[in-house]
Amino acid sequence: MEEFKRIARNLVAHGAIIDYYQDTMQIPNGNVVKWDFIKHKGAAAVVPVDDKGRLIMVRQYRNALERYTLEIPAGGLNSADEPTMDAALRELEEETGYKAAHAELLISIYTTVAFCNEKIDIYLATGLTSGKQHLDEDEYVQAGAYTVEELTQKIFAGEIQDSKTVAAIMAYKDKCMRA
């Protein structure tokens, strides 16, 4: 296999969620090129399923898209060492008010492999009990319950385009079909 060699990695900007670097790379043909790299500490998400088999989703405004999106509950890790299951269950309670009696890893994804190392572990949560949302001061999130069929239709209609949510719904649907 041909070799790629990083010659330098320079921090361009440090942010609250990500750090932006510019890498100087030597590629296999000998040329030296500049590549962008976004370093992310990681995230966790959850597919909460209620006792009627519906998925609890969150509707929230996303600045990057300048619109509301329908997503699974998710959030960044508090630190790179935080167990992703702990983060997923924390986000479930914060964003929806639900607590889960059971959780298991459903799927792990890298969101944007061309320039970012963000990895999201996505858990399936069952045995839900309702409670109260604990939103951050900059969050406005509305929770709602949907069938997997409704969500699949929304994916193919282009109404759900968030990659973690699409992957999670399809993985959950596949798991249900094999059960």
Structure characterization notes:
This protein has three helices and ten strands. Helix content is 21%, strand content 44%. α2 (148-156) crosses α3. The chain has 179 residues and is α+β, with helices and mostly antiparallel strands. The radius of gyration is 18 Å and the shape is elongated. A hairpin with a 5-residue loop joins β2 and β3 (32-40).
The value of Rg in angstroms is 18 Å
User: Can you list the strand order of the major beta sheet?
Assistant: 7-4-9-8
Order of helices and strands: EEEEEEEHEEEHH
Q: List the uncertain runs.
A: none
Percent of sequence in beta strands: 35-45%
What structural class do the secondary elements suggest?
alpha+beta
Helical percent range? 10-25%
Bulk shape: elongated
Instruction: Average the pLDDT over all residues and give the rounded result.
Output: 95
In short:
The chain is an alpha+beta fold and 179 residues long. The chain has three helices and ten strands.
Main traits of this protein?
three-stranded antiparallel sheet, 10 strands, 179 residues, alpha+beta, elongated, 3 helices, four-stranded mixed sheet, single chain, 44% strand
